[in-house]
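Lecture notes, part 5. Sequence design as translation. It can be helpful to think of inverse folding as translation between two languages: the language of shapes and the language of residues. The source text, in structure tokens, appears below.
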């Protein structure tokens, strides 16, 4: 293998590692978990939910947890497909492009379903509770403004 081909291969492996690391950092580490923890604490400790609200929110959380796990598995599969495409093409070709598009589609689905989940929980709240919930969501989405 020529020096130029080795350099391209090293660059592709580095790119794949960077993408995987970025995904792992965003999907598995603190920011998302902190948001969930903050919202969970607010819902269950600070909003004084009645029994009916608590039951409805628990059901919403259960449904979302199942769906989120499925989307996380789909994201892992999309990343594996991207890695395979990069290995096959050794460049930014049509398979790599399609794999990136699929990865973005899955990430978009996760974001949409997360928002649907938040709005479903919000719909269970009284207006005074919803105002506190909204402030917490806004803080979570704009941490640099804190």
């Amino acid at each position: 293998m020529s020096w130029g081909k080795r350099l391209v291969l090293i660059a592709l492996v580095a790119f794949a590692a960077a993408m995987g690391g970025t995904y792992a950092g965003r999907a598995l580490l603190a920011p998302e978990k902190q948001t969930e923890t903050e919202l969970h604490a607010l819902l269950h400790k600070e909003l004084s939910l009645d029994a009916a609200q608590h039951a409805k929110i628990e059901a919403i959380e259960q449904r979302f947890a199942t769906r989120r796990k499925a989307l996380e598995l789909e994201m892992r599969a999309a990343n594996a497909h991207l890695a395979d495409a990069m290995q096959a093409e050794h460049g930014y070709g049509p398979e790599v492009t399609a794999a990136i598009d699929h990865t973005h589609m899955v990430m978009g689905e996760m974001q949409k379903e997360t928002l649907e989940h938040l709005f479903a929980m919000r719909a269970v709240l009284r207006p005074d509770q919803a105002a506190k919930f909204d402030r917490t969501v806004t803080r979570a989405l704009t941490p640099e403004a804190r």
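The translated text above is only one of many valid answers, since several sequences can fold into similar shapes. The longest helix spans residues 51-89.
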